[in-house]
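Hi W., the copper (II) ion complex you wanted:
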Amino acid sequence: MRTNGKKLDSILLFFLIIIIGGVPLGILAYDHLLKSQQTPPGAKEFILTGSAQRGWLLGEIRAHDIVSLGQNNIQVEHPVIEVSRGDDVVLKLRSIDVTHGFALKAYDIYIPEGIKPGKTVFVSFKADKAGTFLFWCNVYCGDIHQHMKGTLIVKD
Ligand SMILES: [Cu+2]
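Structure:
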């Protein structure tokens, strides 16, 4: 009886180790799968976070970061993204407040469904046209909407 109990214990332990070890491995594998679907290897990746107070912000910005900047000196940002001709470009579009839109007309990119807070919209394209191009928000989002613009520079 005693040996049977020990056997059962080691079987349980065995499965416990598989479960404990397997879950993080599974998450890592899934993460990797998602990443490989979204960002081709060697692609230039940029995060653009939309804010109804500050416009497009480069990088992953949280609502908290905006508030702490103070209300008196609100400045609309105009980020510049620079890539080389032929680069694969991935844009991760996010919002910290209201639904924003995105348009990069030069590359025929429009996000008609909008960028909702808490969601990330992936845009990928090949920068095959050199030049300086504007991108902007195409979903009305408040007072600064018309100024919510940024620049994409594709160097030849
Ligand atoms: Cu907007």
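The pocket of copper (II) ion is lined by residues 50, 100, 137, 139, 141, 145, 148 (CB under 6 Å).

W.
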